[in-house]
Design brief:
Layout: E1 4-8, E2 20-27, H1 30-38, H2 40-43, E3 47-50, E4 56-57, E5 62-69, E6 74-79, E7 83-89, H3 94-103, E8 128-129, E9 132-133, E10 138-145, E11 151-155, H4 156-159, E12 176-186, H5 196-204, H6 212-226, E13 234-238, E14 244-245, H7 247-256, E15 262-264, E16 270-272, H8 274-280, E17 287-288, E18 291-293, E19 300-303, H9 309-327, E20 336-337
Parallel strand pairs: 2-5, 3-5, 4-20
Antiparallel strand pairs: 1-2, 6-7, 7-12, 8-9, 10-11, 10-12, 13-19, 14-16, 15-16, 17-18, 18-19
Bound molecules: flavin-adenine dinucleotide and uridine-diphosphate-2(N-acetylglucosaminyl) butyric acid.
Length: 338
């Protein structure tokens, strides 16, 4: 393992922010990770685990050790009447894992096609798209406790999944390195095409027999048409979460703003489309210096060239303030801020 000092992370985060790590290392095995954690030099300094860097905004350099987790491998571990249990190591690219599942007819992750990043970060914020979240297919994960250097197993309940939430984003933040995730994938697929856009895309693709490969392709087409490619424009996907409000807040807002875009939830609350709120505040397509709000998706903040992380952060604060002022709604950042 080569330990680098004062190492640029520009190519390792999809915002393309030129932040530096005091120490940087890539680890490809469990024993390398354990060796790093027990190294006296690194014991008491902050640590940051990096996957694909697609949900992170560096507003400053990282004074500590950045560990890029490159553990690889995808293996079926058992099966029962209904499910295949498939264990993927944290450093596997998420979309490669999805493609592996489709090739082997393991159903359940096709709607999550093309989400950037690695398997290890997928439980972190319970990644979701097009009506599915990883909590729907999650079985368990293994993680290394950074204080004790011991491997612990987390069940579904232990992870406390919520909308873009888990215990690893809250009380256990930076306390564990996720090593592997085991998914419970369906032998018999139930297709989730409830998002209208998927149905429409399948029709446009002239698909006569729906299958997991066709759904995956449809999702990829929709995503490619809507979201900026980080290889072309720096971004980290949705910068904010879609906020949840009570039914009475929703009714009051809808009266004032009949065009409000919202979805009712199982608990009778409403989820508002943050992209709509931000667009109504006039932010869509705006740029401040080299930071901006994407022209097609107001929920996505972008780095057009060499914006600094704190410029993007300050733009996000202005957006938060204006949505609060116009609608009385608090937005919450989805991206991990360093
Ligand atoms: P990173 O950005 O590297 O890390 C994210 C956080 O997880 C950090 O706090 C990091 O310290 C921690 N972490 C990473 N790996 C580990 C590990 N092994 N152990 C412990 N902690 C770890 N997300 C969605 O949910 N749905 C979407 O539809 C979606 N679309 C996106 C579209 C675009 C264009 C982009 C750029 C991003 C999108 N995202 C989406 C966000 C992002 O893809 C996900 O959050 C993804 O899971 C991040 O993975 P990563 O490996 O890049 O994580
Ligand atoms: N909208 C606008 N203006 C905009 C953007 C959106 O009015 O500029 C309205 C439109 O009415 C649109 C609605 O908002 O129909 C919803 O937009 P979209 O379908 O693009 O989805 P989203 O709510 O903006 C969420 C996730 C995405 C996920 C998609 C598909 C969050 C924070 N974002 O976006 O996840 O891919 O749904 O399921 O929940 C991510 O987390 O990084 C991410 C990209």
């Amino acid at each position: 393992m080569e330990i680098r000092e004062n190492y640029s992370l520009k190519k390792l985060n999809t915002f393309g922010i030129d932040a530096f790590a005091q120490y940087f290392v890539e680890a490809s095995t469990l024993s390398e990770l354990q060796e790093l954690l027990s190294e006296p030099k690194f014991k008491s300094i902050p640590k940051l685990i990096l996957g694909g860097g697609s949900n992170i905004l560096f507003t400053k350099n990282f004074e500590g050790l950045v560990i890029k987790n490159n553990l690889s491998g995808i293996n079926p571990i058992k099966e029962d009447e209904k499910y295949f249990y498939v264990k993927a190591q944290a450093g596997e690219v998420w979309h490669h894992f999805v493609l592996h599942c489709i090739a082997n007819n393991y159903a359940g992750v096709e709607n999550l096609s093309l989400i950037p990043g690695n398997v290890g970060a997928s439980p972190m914020q319970n990644i979701g798209a097009y009506g599915v979240e990883i909590k729907d297919v999650f079985y368990e994960l293994e993680a290394l406790n950074t204080s004790t250097n011991a491997i612990e197993v987390f069940s579904h309940a232990d992870c406390k999944f919520g909308y873009r939430e888990s215990v690893f984003k809250r009380e256990l933040k930076n306390k564990y390195i996720i090593l592997s995730v085991t998914f419970k994938l369906n032998k018999k697929a139930t297709f989730n095409t409830s998002y209208g856009a998927i149905e429409k895309e399948l029709e446009a693709m002239k698909v006569t027999e729906v299958g997991i490969a066709a759904i995956s392709k449809a999702v990829c087409n929709i995503r490619n048409s809507k979201l900026p490619n980080p290889k072309e424009i720096g971004n980290a996907g949705s910068f904010f979460k879609n906020p949840e409000v009570t039914a009475s807040q929703y009714i009051a807002l809808k009266e004032k703003h009949p065009e409000l875009v919202a979805y009712v939830l199982e608990n009778s609350n409403y989820k508002l489309a943050a992209g709509w709120l931000i667009e109504q505040c006039g932010w869509k397509g705006k740029t401040i210096g080299e930071a901006g709000v994407h022209k097609n998706q107001a929920l996505v903040l972008v780095n057009y060239a060499n914006a600094k992380g704190n410029e993007i952060y300050s733009l996000s604060q202005q957006i938060l303030d204006s949505v609060k002022e116009k609608f009385g709604v608090d937005l919450e950042r989805e991206v991990n801020i360093i």
